[in-house]
């Protein structure tokens, strides 16, 4: 391709009636995940918009050569309203003036920027980002952000050097395999499955001031992909599944320690596959699974089948209070593991802030996890938030962050 080809790149909205096969071909040619011998590939199950379509507003753009109509790139984006900070209430009649209230802003998330390897370094990625940002601005978005790998230098350079984004947060992606055996849940812990309305009440009243908390948390909890919200309390306290009387009563008199998390079914949205593994590595993994299945009472840490397309469950809304909250999170993760095993998944994953106090309670394999997922952010406008936060891009990180499962 010559230098003039950049002028004949057309960026337009994705048309599923004619673009599906071409988009899938570009996806196959683009490696996803960290560089190296092992590579992670994503199968979107025939729906290129699957990872943004559950958001309040979304768009997918493609880049094509005007001469041949060949699709050589794509980008996805979605828009929602989230917490960017907090303020104290001034209305003493209806609110506790000492209790902070969330400050919301309209944000956009960029996901799945792909450019065909044979057409890179032509400015296609930049064109796709700028066109997507135009749509963001037209819809009143104040900030745009994205997640990328720290070692994906090409992506980092594109967004920070050419598009004006700044490095913002570095949460940890924690991934744990699903074994052939069930994990025991401590008999010192009681688990309670909350209704979506109780879960919404708990999240809004305890976690709504956390960064990136979605204002439409009710839509998330009521989505068909949300498999439930689970509360863990010390066994012997007055709260059990049988005696549960609602979130209002619980929050009026909570136990000293408690924890909560919700489970999102990514398996019905996309599948992952690890490629590039040696025959020896595959044989070793298979051997651990066989032994684990034959001798489940040994509870061996078997390696799941990740060298074929596999599904996962994502744990979101991880939170809690009290000195034993991390131990209660550990029990919730064991329960989530067993749900994933029943659902035919190979891994469970979550993403938390690096400084999250409950991080210690989330079991994970270091070799499967990412210590610092890089989030970059850019301010697009100043007309939405109430000014209490100022420029969010310059704010220091908090201890916690709410990772929306619709964007994982």
Describe the structure in brief:
The chain has helices at residues 16-29, 124-138, 153-162, 196-207, 217-221, 247-252, 279-294, 325-342; strands spanning 9-13, 39-43, 57-65, 71-88, 100-115, 143-149, 166-169, 172-177, 189-194, 226-234, 258-265, 271-275, 312-321, 347-352, 373-379. With 408 residues, the protein is of the alpha+beta class. The strands form three sheets. It has a seven-stranded mixed sheet, with helices on both faces. Strands 8-14-13-11-10-9 form a six-stranded mixed sheet, with helices on both faces.
Give the distance, in angstroms, between the N- and C-terminal Cα atoms.
35 Å
Number of domains: 2
- Work out the oligomeric state of the chains in this entry: single chain
Number of helices, where a helix is a run of at least 4 consecutive DSSP H or I residues = 8
Main sheet record: 7 strands, mixed
What's the level 1 CATH class of the largest domain? Answer: Alpha Beta
Class by helix and strand content? alpha+beta
Lateral arrangement of strands in the main beta sheet: 1-3-4-5-6-15-7
Mean pLDDT: 91
Quick one: how many beta strands? 15
Explain this structure.
By secondary structure, this protein is of the alpha+beta class. The chain has two domains: 3-170 and 374-385, 3-Layer(aba) Sandwich (Aminopeptidase); 174-368, Aminopeptidase, CATH 3.40.630. The protein is built from eight helices and 15 strands. The chain has helices at residues 16-29, 124-138, 153-162, 196-207, 217-221, 247-252, 279-294, 325-342; strands spanning 9-13, 39-43, 57-65, 71-88, 100-115, 143-149, 166-169, 172-177, 189-194, 226-234, 258-265, 271-275, 312-321, 347-352, 373-379. Strands 1-3-4-5-6-15-7 form a seven-stranded mixed beta sheet, sandwiched between helices. It has a six-stranded mixed beta sheet with strand order 8-14-13-11-10-9, sandwiched between helices. Strand 3 (57-65) and strand 4 (71-88) form a beta hairpin. The two termini are 35 Å apart. The relative contact order is 0.17.
